[in-house]
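Escalated from tier 1: zinc ion holo job.
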Amino acid sequence: MKAVVFAGAGRVGLADVPDPVLREPTDAIVRVQRAAICGTDLHIVGHPGQLPEGFVLGHEFAGQIVDLGDGVRGHRHGDRVLGADFTACGTCWWCRRGDHWECAERQFFGTGSVFGPPLPGGQAELVRVPFADTVLRPVPADVSLDAAVFLGDTLATAHVAVQRAGLRPGDTVAVIGGGPVGQLTSLAAQACGAGVVILVEPVESRRHLATIEGALAAAPDDARALVEQNTDGRGADAVIDAIGGQTGLTMAFDLVRRRGTIVSAGVHTEAWSLPAGRAFADELCLRFAIGDPMRHGDEIAGLVRSGAIDPTVVASETIGLDDAPGAYRRMAERRTLKSLIRL
Ligand SMILES: [Zn+2]
Ligand SMILES: [Zn+2]
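Tier 2 regenerated the structure:
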């Protein structure tokens, strides 16, 4: 089959690789009809660690089941499904609590061995899905595959970040970062009862998209003033960091009001010095969030089915699999927001 593969540090290629086959009775094989390229894909291609050349990339996919192990109970041949971005057994202590990320059986599609044993990804014509009853979710008839592909990671991340913020109706929410997760966080906050949502982003086209989609937007240097203007000088009730690293956390502390909540849904790899004096004196709440499409799949699907959220607004281009290497470059150069792949 044809697949998008890692081709050496910073490079992506197309390759013919062997078709995946069932290995466990709980596996399914999915014919991929939609896939998407994510910032995480760009990051691991640029920082490959132990990623072997030729490894199939991608963790965002939706399509049709074409083969099933004998142990799969909840799906049939031909079902339209979307994949979670990582696997979980569905039966251990963590999974029973809904904390799939902690499952000992976790494998993250298409990322090498960063988050568990390597598992070839979904930017390919076929993908093998372990624990199919847990990892795959039916796509409702009234949800398009174009939308469904965003439920497995990007919207799941945005959704959990908003849930962790514990919004009260009308709360003012600042979202740091206008990438795909930041844009969908803005939509999820609006859908979940936020008042004014202010998206903070340096790239003008990304600020423009946020304003079309119902938020206010500010460049980083203007953010504090716009937040103060909308909160009588108090600061945002909740700040959601969708970029990660020290920049996101530092800006979040600058924008949040006393007794406010900060949720970080960005990736962190380095230490950061917590302004503990202020966090204590102002009784701030700081939480972190990793999307879990297995736990929140029904909630997210409900928001999409109702029309409350249209996740396809982040797809700035639609391409075929052959154009994926070029699409990686365009995303890395910030010429596009997110690439949707139709197979
Ligand atoms: Zn992703
Ligand atoms: Zn488990």
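The chain has twelve helices and 15 strands.
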